[in-house]
Amino acid sequence: MRQSNLLIPTLKENPNDAEIKSHQLLVRAGFMRQIASGLYSFLPLGNRVLRKVEQIVREEMDEAGASEMLMPALQPSELWKESGRWETFGPELMRINDRHEREFALGATHEEVITSIIRDELKSYKKLPLTVYQIQSKFRDEKRPRFGLLRGREFLMKDAYSFHESFESLDETYEKLFNAYKNIFSRCGLDFRAVIADSGAMGGKDTHEFMVLSEVGEDVIAYSDTSDYAANIEMAPVITTYETSDEKLKELQKVETPNQKTMEEVADYLGHSLDQGIKALMFKVDEQLVLVITRGDHEVNDVKLKNLYDASFVDLASEEETRQAMNAGFGSLGPVGVPEDIDIVADHAVQSLVNVSCGANEDGYHYMNVTPDRDFKVSQYADLRFIQEGDPSPDGNGKIKFARGIEVGHVFKLGRYYSEKMNATYLDQNGKANSFIMGCYGIGVSRTLAAIVEQHHDDNGITWPAQVAPYHVHLLALNVKKNEQLELAEEIYESLKKAGIEVLFDDRQERAGVKFADSDLMGIPLRITVGKRAAEGYVEVKYRDSGEQEDVQQTEIINTVRSFISEVK
């Protein structure tokens, strides 16, 4: 393709609203443009990369036995109401009414739609197992779209769904697609980890996320420093054991703590360390108020709390709800003297505490010398805190370290979560109706594109892996006004095309410096420059990633390019 015919509007400066490298470089290099907050158009170069990632996804999904289909983005509310998610999915679900005031949703995901299709069309066990997938735009009304393609309101996604008559069959497909995902992200040139995760609004139990390691990732990965254990920090269990102090119990004492609201402020004011205090937070678990207690240096893990209660919804109670229930604000809550209709649950670490401080449920006051069981009763002790760096790894090997990651893929074992709610059944060998057992498998295609850039760039621009680069070769004619340069460049261009090599030909009437800068910015893996030695039949070949360069005779260009492409595939 001739560059003079392409829409590639490059920029010298970063956009004002671009906070991370992938956002900055994809806009500067002319791969995409923002239309509104969280909404992007993919220009020709960006679209070519998307298609490359899509092709890798298709090849690996097809190899794993899945077949491609396409479902509508506009979904009737009745399907979501069948599953119960119309009420529980949250404000991220974009809801609209048609001219007849019928309710619809713009597809954030397609579990309901595919379940309804299979319910209506697949009646016998003889067609099981079955796996289908699609690549399609999804819509979510993000409260704060940010980080370019990493958190948008419209994004390209591959979602797949499998249907089974046994959990053993589900396990087999899950393993196949788990391995397909590893192949996909490896072929995209990514450094990633598969981590244990929470299913969230998707339902189901067993699930893994595929995380691309990056400092700009919004998720924290907890991993062992000596084994292959890795989990989203929300899901990593704490196996730390706590020894109860043999310190003599002291008398409960109420003290004034004016204007001391945070754990740090209270600990400093009372002259003790954070781990000698109790933190109390009021949560709303579905419609129930629950007081959650942790040690002062620990943080409540609301995912673990949600799983403890098998709840649909968990959030911090409002200031008004908390004050109405406890007669005190957030900074003075504690477990002593709590009304009987409020559950108190505590993290395991609290059980071993002796003579510690906590809020007195009166603004500006705290208790000292508080001891569990003597001064308050806990309805249940459980693992309710986030794991911390240095804690023992949950698999018993090594210590926990943290890394940040960008989620690019997620695989779920849904079980009968949707089929039972939506009455999706098949007839087994005995003619008995059974609910389908389901799996769900998603890849953020546009997120993957951004994640690749986060891991593959330098000070001058993007450094695309050859497998997903918009073109393999960027051919530059430095001075198109010089006949020997233009003629040689045209000959090379035609020979590369005939050889089936993807080439972008910079035939613009621009200065050499502009062409070099744009080429580095766009990040095409191999650059061929036709310049001063054109009359001798020599060109300069430069490898974008390594920066290595060499002079190559015209007759050897095809072999040089083919050798490079074969090495990186």
TrEMBL record:
Subcellular location: Cytoplasm
One Pfam family hit: tRNA-synt_2b
InterPro entries for this protein: aa-tRNA-synt_IIb, aa-tRNA-synth_II, aa-tRNA-synth_II/BPL/LPL, Anticodon-bd, Anticodon-bd_dom_sf, Pro-tRNA-ligase_IIa, Pro-tRNA-synth_IIa_bac-type, Pro-tRNA-Synthase_IIa_type1
Catalytic reactions of this protein: tRNA(Pro) + L-proline + ATP = L-prolyl-tRNA(Pro) + AMP + diphosphate
Superkingdom, taxonomy of origin: Bacteria
MF GO annotations: ligase activity
Keyword terms of this UniProt record: Aminoacyl-tRNA synthetase, ATP-binding, Cytoplasm, Ligase, Nucleotide-binding, Protein biosynthesis
EC number assigned by the record: 6.1.1.15
Keyword check for Aminoacyl-tRNA synthetase: yes
Transmembrane segments: none
Sequence ranges assigned to domain Aminoacyl-transfer RNA synthetases class-II family profile in this UniProt record: 33-465
Record remark on domains: Consists of three domains: the N-terminal catalytic domain, the editing domain and the C-terminal anticodon-binding domain.
Purpose of the protein: Catalyzes the attachment of proline to tRNA(Pro) in a two-step reaction: proline is first activated by ATP to form Pro-AMP and then transferred to the acceptor end of tRNA(Pro). As ProRS can inadvertently accommodate and process non-cognate amino acids such as alanine and cysteine, to avoid such errors it has two additional distinct editing activities against alanine. One activity is designated as 'pretransfer' editing and involves the tRNA(Pro)-independent hydrolysis of activated Ala-AMP.
Family from the record: Belongs to the class-II aminoacyl-tRNA synthetase family. ProS type 1 subfamily.
Assembly mode: Homodimer.
Full protein name: Proline--tRNA ligase
